[in-house]
């Protein structure tokens, strides 16, 4: 069965981005380029993200690829306003837990959860996330877009698999306990 994996970075106080969706604080973190992003990305063939993450990524990349390490990655964008995509990108308002349940049963490589709480939290609540790869940058933002949002709908335990340091970036890898 395919694994569902979150891979992303946060500030020390748990923010994915500033309130205006900026990530410059992350890009200024020395060592981020040494993280094993390429190795991780080569193991996924599906990326699921919210529309804001998709829009930001398309604005910031010149190659217009969510996963440049596997150009055949199928991108699924969760949006309240689905519209026709292209051969690599699907825009859908399907419930993300239903979608992931279906994808896990299909053949393929791992599934990458990109972006924030809008996509991640329903999957955590449904116990559908196998791994969390969280990179922590040594910056306090004070406010912004959080990775986790408060909810009383879940209680899960993960095990710590590994900790790594890439320059000033710390990475923790957690795996869901059965």
Beta-strand segment tally: 10
Q: How would you write the strand order of the largest sheet?
A: 5-4-3-6-1-7-10-9
The percentage of residues in β strands lies in 25-35%
Helix content: 10-25%
- Provide the low-confidence segments as ranges: none
Query: Mean pLDDT score, rounded?
Result: 91
Rg from alpha-carbon coordinates: 16 Å
Biggest sheet architecture: 8 strands, mixed
Task: Write down the overall geometry.
Answer: globular
The H-and-E topology, N to C, reads as EEHHEHEEHEHEEEE
In whole angstroms, how far apart are the ends?
14 Å
What is the structure about, briefly put?
With 178 residues, this protein is α/β, with parallel strands linked by helices. Helix content is 21%, strand content 32%.
